[in-house]
Amino acid sequence: MEGEGEVSGFMRVFDGKRGRKQPKRKCVDFNSSSLTHLHARVLFRDYRDLQDLQPSLAHDKKLRPAYSCHENPASCVTTKLADTSVNKNNAYSHRCPVFAIAWTPEGRGLVAGNSQGEFTLWDGYEFNFLTIWQGHDQSVQSMTWSHNGEFMVSADKTGLIKYWMNNMNEVKKFQGHKDSIRSISFSPSDLKFVTGGDDCVLKIWDFETGAEERAITGHHWDVKCCHWHPYKPLILSGGKDHKVKLWDARTGSCLDTIHAHKNTVRACEWSSNGNWFFTGGRDQKVKLYDLRRTNEAVLTFNGHKNEVTSLALHPFYETLFVTGDYS
């Protein structure tokens, strides 16, 4: 009969630690698609030799990066949920609504601001939690990165504005509005930025000094969204008064007023070419306008069954955009 410490005549060695099976983690790896593109571009003439991707695992090896799919932008549309992440509980936080999110400039991380004033940084490759810190004392309502990727500006429910470096160190804070700030947008040069809030005012700020350059009044109710033109001194805004307005950033004068929606305008954004802009409202509609002819919408998109709360254009293809609603 074998002893308790022996197995088939061999001494059992046990150091007190049992082996644990390594968990399988989801991961986004862009290297394989980039290598496929580098290999294929010297073999094919142009889009005529490239095959359209099909929703099948057999086409995974043919996947190419988004910037190389000019012949078929639909290949860049994501149709499968990659992951769902939830904040870690700690001594002073619990699960709460997230009101603002922004990808870091290099695309490796996602910053989320919640109703308790906390920022959470998530890994964009493996979807794991990286860090959490208290950024504001009140609910974070808006955040955006400068075009050069060096600074992030955030704002909260009390109208407080804060600057953050790309290493998430706070460098400046000041009171911007008397009420909640709903939207922030940088000028093309990053020297100025505009904010819109529930005090019915748009404000243009000097980024370096944090000084207010101009307060723009004209909306008769809360300003819910604003966006600076990609290369002109032109600001687009929408508000609770159902109106979309175009402003001259140099003088603060209103250039055009568009009665675009039958209810609150919740989202607005310029296309990268600067000739089109999109609006989304509480009337469950998304509209496309041409800057050169704003008397009527070029296209109206129906499909939402609840109020449209957000929209975003594809970074490479201006004909692709995504919208979200309250449901």
Annotate the secondary structure layout.
Elements: E1 6-7, E2 10-11, H1 31-40, E3 98-103, E4 109-114, E5 118-123, E6 129-134, E7 140-145, E8 151-156, E9 160-165, E10 170-175, E11 181-186, E12 192-197, E13 201-206, E14 212-217, E15 223-228, E16 234-239, E17 244-248, E18 254-258, E19 265-270, E20 276-281, E21 285-290, E22 299-302, E23 308-313, E24 321-325
Antiparallel strand pairs: 1-2, 3-4, 4-5, 5-6, 7-8, 8-9, 9-10, 11-12, 12-13, 13-14, 15-16, 16-17, 17-18, 19-20, 20-21, 21-22, 23-24
Keywords: Repeat, WD repeat
InterPro entries: Pfs2-like, WD40/YVTN_repeat-like_dom_sf, WD40_PAC1, WD40_repeat_CS, WD40_repeat_dom_sf, WD40_rpt
GO cellular component, one term: mRNA cleavage and polyadenylation specificity factor complex
Describe this structure as you would to a colleague.
The chain has one helix at residues 31-40; strands at 6-7, 10-11, 98-103, 109-114, 118-123, 129-134, 140-145, 151-156, 160-165, 170-175, 181-186, 192-197, 201-206, 212-217, 223-228, 234-239, 244-248, 254-258, 265-270, 276-281, 285-290, 299-302, 308-313, 321-325. The strands form 7 sheets. A 4-stranded antiparallel β-sheet has the order 3-4-5-6, with no helix packed on it. The radius of gyration is 25 Å and the shape is globular. The chain has 1 helix and 24 strands. The termini are far apart. The model has no long low-confidence stretch (mean pLDDT 86). It is mostly beta strands and 327 residues long. The chain has 2 domains: 30-50 and 59-69, no CATH class; 99-325, Methylamine Dehydrogenase, Chain H, CATH 2.130.10. One of its GO terms (cellular component) is mRNA cleavage and polyadenylation specificity factor complex.
